[in-house]
Write a structure and sequence with these properties.
Radius of gyration: 16 Å
Distance between the termini: 20 Å
Number of domains: 1
Shape: elongated
Number of strands: 0
Structural class: mainly alpha
Oligomer: single chain
Strand content: under 5%
Order of helices and strands: HHHHH
């Protein structure tokens, strides 16, 4: 994946994070408080934002250093982490399906793998 494509995905992901955060704060707040999921939803939005910023950084680095081929893998890990980690928490908050909490750590592992691959790409390409 090229740096410009990663930047485009970061833009989409950032817009979704803002939209979902606003939706949760304004339209879902009462439901989230009733189901005691407000903090869970906020965690999902926070991690969504943090890793969108990571995607932005990976995209910028990929644009400046296109020879660093491993960055695309890091980007995919961040995207997968957002989908699994934040996505499972978003759905958990709306459905209260407790088994979704069991897959959330898989998204966390994808995040860790993405961050470790940034380190590896730097080490390999210096």
């Amino acid at each position: 994946m090229k740096g410009t494509q990663i930047l485009q995905l970061a833009g989409i992901s950032g817009a979704l994070a803002v939209g979902l955060g606003a939706f949760g704060a304004h339209s879902l707040e009462e439901l989230l408080i009733q189901t005691n999921r407000l903090e869970t939803f906020q965690t999902a939005v926070n991690y969504h934002f943090y890793h969108t910023l990571a995607l932005l950084g990976i995209g910028i680095l990929g644009t400046l250093k296109p020879e660093w081929k491993g960055l695309g893998f890091s980007a995919w890990c961040m995207i997968l982490g957002i989908l699994i980690f934040s996505g499972s928490l978003y759905i958990l908050c709306l459905t209260s399906l407790p088994w979704l909490g069991g897959i959330t750590p898989l998204g966390g592992l994808a995040f860790i793998l993405g961050w470790m691959n940034i380190f590896y790409s730097n080490y390999k390409n210096r």
